[in-house]
Amino acid sequence: MKFKFLSVITASLLFSWGQTYAQEILTLQQAVKFALDNKKEAKNSKLDLENAQYQIDEVRSGALPQVTGVGSLTYNPLIQQNVIVMEDPATGQSVSTVIQFGQPWQANSNLQVTQQIFNQALFTGLKAARTTREFYQVNKELTDEQLIEKVANAYYQVFQSQLQVATVESNLGNTEKNQRVIQGLVDAGLAKKIDLDRTTVQVNNLKAQLQQAKNTMEIQENALKFAMGMEITNQIDLPDETFAIDAQALENLPIDLDNRTEIRVLEKQTELLELDKKAKIADYYPTLSFSGNLGYMSFAQRFPIFNGNATKTAYSALGLNLSIPIFNGGKTKSQVSQKNIEILRAKVELEDTKLALTMASENARTQVKNSLITINSNEGNVKLAKEVLDNTENNYKNGLATLTELLDAENAYADAQNNLNNSLLDYKVAEVQLIKSKGNLKTLVNE
Asked: Which residues pair with 15 in a beta bridge?
């Protein structure tokens, strides 16, 4: 069944560049897209996704050759001397000789290369880095959905505030019309001045309510602009637009918990915890790496040392480095056990979230149904209250109704309109929740 009614659903936005202003109609879809491009949360999620690639590059760098160049220049004011004791062949006695090792100036340059051959922790880290990027991708989708929900709710709050202003303006205009009629009756001696005074009080009260409603609408507009990431000083105007509610279409939306972004985020978190556990288990594995270096040394009596009198020598070395863990006091076992507990907690959180999402879906469906019933009832009340008001106004002019009855009829009509406005807002909020529970919030952008 389709329910059609009038509401305020679009907005006009004034964008300013210098002294030039261009006016555009801001629909809900445009408001959401603006928020996805400009709101802080959306920007940060994009930066997180970009940063994830840099994290992958950082981990991958550990699997590539590590090349380091080292250079040094040393001056030795005091050269170390050692005593060498030798036997004199002629006398058979020991003779001590003092020998100086090294030169005052020494230069050294060295090129070092290391390459991981087997490192289980490094391999696991590469898998975790790729999974981290997938996590940030899903997390960005979740952030976008949360932003869509926030903007949609703020948008409908502005819509409800606009309806409230229109309702008070309508009631004020109707009461001012009756005030003029009563003024004419008083002038003709057909009505009492107290009736005019009571009507004037009613007019003044409605003017105060109108100002309060406008203030509330301005606050709601500011909340919408903040939710969008828009400058608060920008002006928003909301023209009227007719829209339809297709409750059957909402009912037919399938529920797929496995496709819910909240579930996918938790699943990726669990996957990351599993990889973190494997990284700890990798501490049980040996590591094997290759290392090599090529160096050049120069010695001289004075600076600069790079001259024809310097002594020069080269050196190099190649090696394999094997590290085998034997015993660390049970540290690795304890760390793996802690990771198991974190994984179990994540799984409990996942199951609880699925239960909560199922409940939210059922609650949203129930709220939509109740809101539709309330809207039907309130629409009938508005129509009936208007008929009562018209009849009471006519009876008052003919002396068949009192002013109290007329004011009561006006208040009843205003209450009926306000109740309808509130029920419209309740429906739209419940509609957003139902669409969210079915994992289709992005349809608000693509409609």
From this structure: 22
Would you state the structure tokens that stand for residue 229, as one six-digit string? 């990431």
To which H or E segment does residue 13 belong? strand 11-17
Q: How many CB atoms lie within 10 A of CB 341?
A: 10
Contact, 416 vs 375, CB < 8 A? no
pLDDT the model gives residue 272: 93
> Do 119 and 59 touch, CB atoms closer than 8 A?
no
The residue length of the chain stands at 447
3-state secondary structure of 77: coil
Q: 423-435 pLDDT, tens per residue? A: 888 888 888 888 8
Residue 315 β-bridge partners? 295
CA distance 194 to 23: 49
User: Residue 292: beta bridge partners?
Assistant: 113, 318
- 131: enclosing H helix or E strand: helix 120-187
pLDDT at 252 over 70: no
pTM of the model: 0.75
What CATH class is the domain 2-446?
A: mainly alpha
**Helices within 229-256 (DSSP H only):** 247-251
Q: Tell me: the pLDDT tens digits for 353-362?
A: 999 988 888 8
Q: Tokens standing for 216? A: 């509330």
Rounded CA Rg of the chain: 41
In 215-305, which ranges are E strands? Answer: 236-237, 241-246, 287-300
Helix, coil or strand: residue 96: strand
- Look up residue 440 and give its DSSP letter: -
In the chain, how many H helices and how many E strands? 9, 11
Q: How far apart are CA 163 and CA 407, in angstroms?
A: 22
User: At 76, phi and psi to the nearest 5?
Assistant: -110, 100
d(CA 364, CA 435): 9
- State yes or no: cis peptide before 304, omega within 30 of 0: yes
